[in-house]
Design brief:
There is one protein chain. The protein is an alpha+beta fold and 537 residues long. It has 22 helices and 10 strands. The chain folds into 4 domains: 135 residues, no CATH class; 141 residues, Phosphorylase Kinase, domain 1 (2-Layer Sandwich), CATH 3.30.200.20; 191 residues, no CATH class; 35 residues. Helix 1 runs parallel beside helix 22 and helix 20 packs across helix 21.
Length: 537
């Protein structure tokens, strides 16, 4: 189905336009706009690039593009750092090279003072610090949304244990709200000015970012995610997550078990401490696949800094601010395409794409299968260490534009997470065979969900659903009767709006027209080069 023309800009706050123009200035000043511009931009793009050249800082030619991007986003503040990290998971939007640059973005901001953190903890938990902790130290890590302190808690028996206390930055919610308005403005301008970009759904991308940020702003939800993952993985070999201290957790504070362990970044230290990096690499890969395929709920930020090995050799994950979910249909899609590539059944892989609705019905299954063969066959004769499951998925997503496929953000998040996970696993075992390691997990899911027992289970679910539907039919009939009566009344007397509703609609329309025109000109100058780059993708 073709994408529709955007309905219009709608009402915008003047502050959003000013902040967006400021962001454009900073990006130009740090040389980011010219660095990402295509080699042959349209006329408006060339005009903007000429203006950008005049305001760039001196000496930028000697600075790597990733460093320029990092400097610009850090200057713009926490919201833009988070935006950069989010866009690093969307190479379909910003391009693979820019996604790689954003991967290097370090979420390490200056810590806010300890007294402010203590005051925030007391407000959130409504108790004095002395009643909560025996001691609490200086911040040990500071990121865009929160920072972490090490503290001691006295147990009922008089002993003590260490905890990690995560506390939100002061006024961070208000700051994100303001900046999100600017992001929405930029997305709507891009949809209006560059029609091909509508396929990527920029406004929907900002919607996803906004939902993600809202979740991260409520640390109770991070605690709940941790608790859910703990239940899902209770019986998994070699993997666990820290325990939540619910008594000392609230919206603005999260208290967890302190993890004493080694990060996975230093392979030599792991070996010197008696850990087996080859075994750990398999645990990393298989744990991620179990979480994604079996549970449909996975840690979406599994880089080396968030993975520890405790003294027992168990892999421990931390920092659950970014989580991914896959519904049953998406899990089936993932399992079938991986299994199909393992068996070189490209027609089946193509059919799975069509069954999932990811490829429009007007395309040809056989032609799509031919494209998939071009992806899969080059893998046949390559050494195991050179075969990447994440690269395979990224190549699949490269065909989204060719076959007019709608973007699937959750699957792209999965693919980007898989890139990170594979990187961690191969840093532990450079000769890791991804397919051999993954095959038992994929096969188990296939047997459990697509085998004879799964068919019987689905039949039982269908019977139960029919029973529930039969019980609900009287309520449906009653609602249908009320709706029918309402339509009959509208047909007889017309639809009426009260005076207050009419006044609000008129005011909204007036604001939308006025600010939409201003937004079109100011936003266009700030984003035209970026829009031209997106047009070239």
């Amino acid at each position: 189905m073709p994408l529709q023309e955007p309905a219009g800009f709608g009402p915008f706050r003047p502050g959003s336009i000013v902040r967006l123009a400021h962001a454009g200035w900073v990006l130009a000043r740090e040389g980011v706009i010219r660095a990402i511009a295509p080699p042959d931009p349209p006329a408006l793009g060339r005009l903007v690039l000429a203006a950008c050249r005049l305001i760039e800082r001196r000496g930028l030619a000697r600075v790597a593009r990733s460093a320029r991007v990092s400097e610009a986003l850090n200057r713009l503040g926490p919201s833009y750092v988070k935006l950069g990290q989010f866009l690093a998971t969307r190479p379909d939007v910003v391009g693979q090279e820019m996604a790689d640059d954003l991967e290097a973005l370090q979420d390490r901001l200056t810590a806010f003072p300890k007294p402010e953190a203590l005051a925030a903890i007391e407000r959130a938990l409504q108790r004095p610090i002395s009643a909560l902790f025996a001691s609490i130290g200086e911040p040990v890590a500071a990121a865009s949304i929160a920072q972490v302190h090490r503290a001691e808690v006295i147990d009922a028996d008089g002993s003590s244990h260490a905890v990690a206390v995560k506390v939100l930055r002061p006024d961070i919610e208000a700051r994100f709200r303001r900046d999100l308005d600017s992001f929405y403005l930029a997305a709507r301008i891009l949809e209006r000015l560059v029609p091909p970009i509508r396929r990527l759904r920029p406004v929907a991308i900002v919607d996803t970012l906004a939902r993600s940020v809202r979740l991260e702003m409520d640390l109770r939800l991070e605690a709940a995610a941790l608790s859910e993952l703990a239940e899902n993985t209770a019986g998994d070999p070699g993997f666990r997550v820290p325990k939540v201290d619910w008594v000392r957790t609230a919206k603005g504070v999260l208290t967890l078990e302190w993890v004493d362990g080694m990060k996975l970044a230093d392979r030599d230290k792991l070996i010197a401490s008696g850990h087996d990096p080859v075994a750990l690499s398999k645990v990393v890969m298989q744990s991620f696949l179990r979480h994604a395929m079996r549970d449909g709920f996975f840690h979406a930020d599994m880089h080396q800094g968030n993975l520890f090995v405790d003294r027992q050799g168990t892999l421990v994950a931390v920092d659950f601010g970014i989580m991914g979910r896959l519904n049953p249909a998406e899990r089936r899609f993932l399992a079938e395409i991986l299994y199909g590539f393992i068996r070189r059944d490209y027609l089946r892989v193509a059919q799975v794409h069509f069954e999932a609705g990811y490829v429009p019905a007007g395309e040809e299954v056989d032609v799509f299968a031919q494209a998939l063969r071009a992806v899969g066959e080059p893998l046949r004769d390559r050494p195991a260490r050179e075969i990447s499951m994440a690269h395979l998925l990224s190549q699949l997503f490269e065909y989204t534009e060719v076959f007019h496929m709608a973007t699937q953000p959750r699957l792209i998040l999965l693919q980007k997470t898989m890139v990170v996970v594979e990187g961690v696993a191969r840093s532990l075992d450079p000769d890791l065979d991804i397919w051999t390691t993954s095959e038992p997990v994929v096969r188990e899911w296939i047997e459990r969900n697509l085998g004879p027992l799964a068919v019987l289970g689905e039949a039982g679910d269908s019977i139960s659903a029919l029973g529930r539907l039969a019980l609900a039919l009287p309520r449906f009939a009653e609602r249908a009767e009320r709706i029918s009566a309402g339509f009959a009344l509208m047909a007889d007397k017309g639809m009426r709006l009260d005076d207050d509703t009419v006044e609000r609609l008129a005011a909204a329309e007036a604001r939308g027209t006025r600010w939409g025109r201003i937004a079109l000109w100011i936003g266009a100058l700030s984003l035209a080069a970026i829009a031209a780059h997106m047009f070239a993708l």
